[in-house]
Each structure stands twice: as structure tokens, then as C-alpha cells.
Write a structure and sequence with these properties.
Distance between the termini: 54 Å
Order of helices and strands: HHHHEHHHHHEHHHHHEEHEHEHEEHE
Amino acid sequence: MPTGPTPLPRVDLARVVDLADRLEADHQLEPETLRERDRTLGRELADHVADATARVEAWLDRLRTGSDPTAGERAQRAERTLRALLIGVGGALGVGAALAFFRYDGTHPVNVVQVLAFFVALQAVLLIGTAILALPETWRSRVPGLAAVQDVLRLASPGRWQPALRRALPAAQRDALERASGLARRHQRLYGDVQKWSLLALSQWFALSFHAAAWATAAALVTFSDLAFGWSTTLDVSVAEVHRIADALARPWSTLWPEAVPSLALVEQTQYFRGQGGLVIDALDSAAWWRFVLAAMALYGALPRLVALVFVSWRRSRALDRAFRHLPGVAALRDRLDSRWVSTGADRPERRPAAEGPAPARAPQERPTQLRAVRWSGLPLSEADVRVLLTPLGAELVEVLDGGAGSRLGDAELVAALGVDASAPTLLVKGWEPPLGELLDWLDELRAALGDGRPILVVPVEASEGDAPGFRFATGRMAETWVRRLDRAGDPWLEVIAGSR
């Protein structure tokens, strides 16, 4: 039977959430068990899946068990439900807007100027806002005022209505979305783009449904009722100027649909003033405007939103793919799937360190082989104490430096010293003190200098129990405080090492 690369579904939200959950669960297994299991699966998948990332997708599918939906599948269903709700709200508002702007009671005609101002000009302004929100995050610090403008625009984005709409979801879907939100908070540097493009995609779905419903309602009113059209404005504009504007707007369809291009005579005869008796010509003759109005609403209202939706959906897909490829632990998984692991003849596998050993507080990542330690803000540990404390990490300690308040090295000098090689910066901090802004700001500077993918370890310590003085990995509430605070940094390669009781 012929074999070849097996096509796999594209990376979606369900796969990203499920992969993060699986990697966290696997961290509880013995390293040898993981290597043996994944090498066996790697051999089975090698003949069918050529790409390394595709093998990770296939590996995830193989490990899915049971018929119940996974956390990722529930999160994806919840997202689709939210999208459907937003589409429904957008459609309802579109119908309402069309009924308001195309209202004709036999006295004053439908004002073409108002229709174009709302369904064309205003939408162009909103699209500019969408384009500003889509600018790269790196521009926020480079363009003066951009951060403030983006923050204001985000408050008005329909994608921000998610928290209110979540109340309409089943409990299981709400919980799944909360787990996905937790993943986003922990892995903000990876998942931030997914959030950004997801919100923009929801906004475009809302806007597209609004314009589609408004257009359909306007077309129905034109078809099933009698409307009169005219134009009126207080601005000092001539008939010739209005005709030039209408002619310019109609140029894209003038060849294919010449009847939808208003003539100078039509423009001249349909100008009206509410206090002077309304239209000059018969209402039936003014109806020639409807072709132009519907064409403008479709081309300048709905079509740009459709294009924007396609673009942001493509960018969201790319962001999900990047998050899937670079989640902490994926690199080690790919190595296990591809490596030529050979079992030793040991009677039993080597165990992990005992209860006093470190317990990483977030998704696993490939453990560094070399460490460069930093005693932060005068932590009273000798170099020998540091070596003993970090021994359970199983990595070579290259150097011990001092940083923070009272150290001889400035922040910039310390960042430079930690970037001289590929060793992992390992900060030893006072666990009994909460994380201060000074440290968090410095961690941001360090990440900017090291780039994505480089592990940074933070080790809160506490006094050892018993008669022997010394320090150990922090546990309990002390460790949880550091984990929760550093989770907000959104750096998936920043890992808190805590002790276990």
C-alpha cells in the first residue's frame, strides 16, 4: 500500500490549547518514559508525516483519547458561538440602521447625503481605525501617541464585547475559554498576536454582517415599497460639485452598470430643502438614485470589510501556527520524536530529585545545560550556597553575579554580562518579598536583549527549616505569589522554579 505525507488539518485554537495541556501533563512523567513513548510514535509517524511540526500535530492526534470534546475543542466551539452572537448583533443593528436611514413617509425623501455619510464615509473612518489596531506592537513605542490611540480604539472594538457575550455560553464552554485566556496570559509573547488578530477578526465579522444586513434591508425596501430619493445639506456646495463627487464614487462600476451613475440632471432636480416644499420632480423619477446608493453601500461598505476579514483571518492563522510551533516544550518534543534514542540496560529508570527538588510552575521547556546565576538585591547567599541550591537543576553553573539594588553592576551591564553566551540567566530572589516593579522592568529589558526562545529562570528562595541555616526553593503561598505575578509578564520562556513539599 503506498505511503506518503499525510495532510493534516491546519493549526487552530483547539490544537494550540490541547498541545499546551498535553505538554503540561507530560511534565509529570519520567523523562525516560517520555523518550520511549515519543520515539516509538516518532518511528510510526516518520513514514507518513515529513514536516517536524506536522509530526507534532499527528502526535497530538494519536494521544487524544475518549469521545468527549477536549478543552481546546470546547474553547473553539465557544469562540464560534461568540462569533455567531456577534454576527447576529451586527445583523440586527444593520437592519435597524437601514430602516432608519431609508425611512420614507411620503413627505421628505431618503437623503442620499445621509446614507453615504453613514454607510460609506463613517465606515472608511472605522476601517482606518482597524488599520491602526493592526499595526505591529513594536510600533507602539516608536510612534508617539500610537499606544494611546490603539488603547482607545480597542475599547470601542466589537471584539471587546466578548466578556458580556460569554454569559450566554454553556458553563463548559465558558470554562474552556477561561483556560484559553489563562494560556494567553502565561504565553503573552507568543499568544498576544493570536488575541490581537482574533479580536480584529470578530470585529470584521460584526461589521460585515452589519453591512450585509443593511444592504439586504435597503434592497428589500426598494423592491417592496415605494421610496423617493433626494439630497440635502446645509453646506455651501453646488450641484456640479455634488455631481462630480457622485460620478467619482460611481466610476468603479460605471462601465458595467451605467444606469447606477447619477446624471447631472438627476442631481440638479433632486436637491431639496425641507422648508421649501420638498422635491422639484416626481418622486418616481427620483428613484433612479437607488442603483447608485446600493452599489456604493456594497462596494465601499461591505466589500472592504470582506477583504479585511480575509486578511485578519490569514494573520490569525499564522499567529496560531507560530504559537503552536514555539510553545515551551515543543522543541524538546520534536527532539524526542526525531532522536535515535537507545535504551540503556539499567534495572530501573533514574528518578527525579526528591521532594526538595525544583518543580517548574508552568508549561515545561527544554532544560538548559548551563546557568549563569544572579543574586538579586543583596540576597545573602555565598557562591558555594548557590551551587548547592541549584544542583537539582542538573546544569553547569558558569558564573555567579550580583544584580539589583546595592550591586556594583548597573542594569545594562548585567544584561550585557548575561548575554555573552547561551547559558540561561537564573535569578535568585527573596521569596518572602513580592516581585517589585524594578525587577519586572529589568526582566523586560533582559528579554528584549536576549530575544524570544532563550530561557530565563527565576528562583524564589526561603529559609530552610530545621537547625541547619540556609535556603531552599520557595514553596506554598510564597511561591504562588511569584508564579502569579510573573505569569502576567506573558513571557512563555520565563520560568519560576518552586519547591515541592
